[in-house]
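BUG-368 | component: ligand-complex export | severity: low

The export step for adenosine-5'-diphosphate jobs runs without errors, but we want the raw record kept on the ticket for reference. Input record follows.
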Amino acid sequence: MSLQEADILKALDAVKLPDGTPLGASGRITGVMINDGKIICAITIEAPEASAMEPVRAAAEALLRKLPGAKTVLVGLTADKAPTRAAPAPGATVPRATSKPASLPGVKHIIAVASGKGGVGKSTTACNLALALAAQGLKVGMLDADIYGPSQPKLFGLRGKPKLVGPRMLEPMERFGVKVMSIGFLVDEEQAMIWRGPMVISAITQMLREVAWGELDALIVDMPPGTGDAQLTMAQQTPTSGAVIVSTPQDLALLDARRGVTMFQKVNVPILGIIENMSSFCCPNCQHISPIFGHGGARLEAERLGVPFLGEVPLDMNIRATSDEGRPIVATEPDSPHAQIYKRMAAQVWASVTQGTSARTAPRIVIE
Ligand code: ADP
């Protein structure tokens, strides 16, 4: 018989909280998900308990791994009272940082690719930027943190399950020379969609720190879209060298992109630049160029915000088709004009992270 939530809670009673309470019965276990041998859950804690509860988390994970039928187990700590703020409004005061997040051993630069809202082509852009950096001869990883709609497995044409290396590290999958980890390898998309904020943060932190990335020049993080709690926490808890914001040219998308820029700036993550995606449409039959969503808005917005403008990617059938077929254009048509656009933008991104101007680490916000 397959595992049920009650089995998990019962098993977890064997793990005791520091005060002796059985973990399963403590009411602290949330977000239990069981699917085809994958078990994911979170232990609710108060933020100051984090270090005291880490051994409990580790013990819970070790115990669940021993359950018959358990294949992949992720137990996270989740502080429900952790950053509950939405993205700070422009001009708002954010509490000052105290300590910076621990860097990721072996990973030189973490580059976040973000968007103010979904559907603007953030994942497609992140994938092709990663491939363009790899084409420069860099060692590149892709962390698909878009937990609400993980699309990197599809974009990279990857299937299957990551292997465990050692007691708790997952081995990233690899394609086109890029190491890829995605929650899409671990849970069904429909399940990920219903996760609450703290669960999202917990899962992302684990994917960042409990994956055997090895030596990387750049780890591209495909961020969850938007500027809510999960994004803000990611931005402040990840030692990010900089962020790339993807937007379409419409005013509404640009308004969201502006929120994205503000969010990163408030937590001292440098903005590496804005990309205008789906900039204009070139008719494959008559070559007529139509600015379907308007054109040039992101460039103006970048100027207005004083951040670099990285370039325009047209709305193009071939970009969509290659993405949906798992053969991204930079990897499979590296000399095409569109691949060249991504390569130019990637070169600019890499130049700014390595010039040091953008290589500051993100400070942590104090949670009140
Ligand atoms: P997001 O990550 O912002 O939700 P995606 O990268 O998943 O967006 O892209 C949404 C859809 O738009 C996908 O079907 C993708 O293939 C398509 N798409 C993205 N960028 C382009 C582009 N420049 N031209 C044509 N289609 C694109």
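Assignee comment: Attached the raw record above. The pocket of adenosine-5'-diphosphate is lined by residues 115, 118-124, 151, 225, 277-278, 313, 315-316, 319-320, 323-324 (CB under 6 Å).
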